[in-house]
Predict the 3D structure of the following.
Amino acid sequence: MALIAGIVVGGQVNAVRDAVDDVFGNPSQDATSQAIDVINDDYFHTVNEADLENASIGSIIDHIKKRYHDRFSHYFTPSEYDRFQQGSHLSGVGIGVTEVADGLRVATVYKHTPAREAGIQPGEVITEVNGESIAGKDPDAVTNQIRGPAGTKVTLTVETA
């Protein structure tokens, strides 16, 4: 009891609490926060906490999609969500698509659009956007990459099915 009173009076409570938390974890923190704290303290590279949080949430959503066969759940990073919210102000290349394993299959090519002018045909599969593979990526996030303010340039790589 005298030891505890000495710690409290001596102002060492926080130091002791921190030492206990280092060993046993802080029960008021969730597992993700604890993991990020350990990475910040012990990893040899400097990491961006927001990036780790987004990766964690994205992994959780990916798990839900796979485990429960849920093709409707998607996670957007804050910047992706901002672009998604601006969707009503964006225009596309003039195609309708459906999701396939290796990309997006062109279902429709609308008249008088950049896609029609570029020769994109129904049945072709979009595999890259601006030189980056879209295999395994969220279809909503990919279509947001394709859309932009009218006149925005985008490069699509398509393969004949």
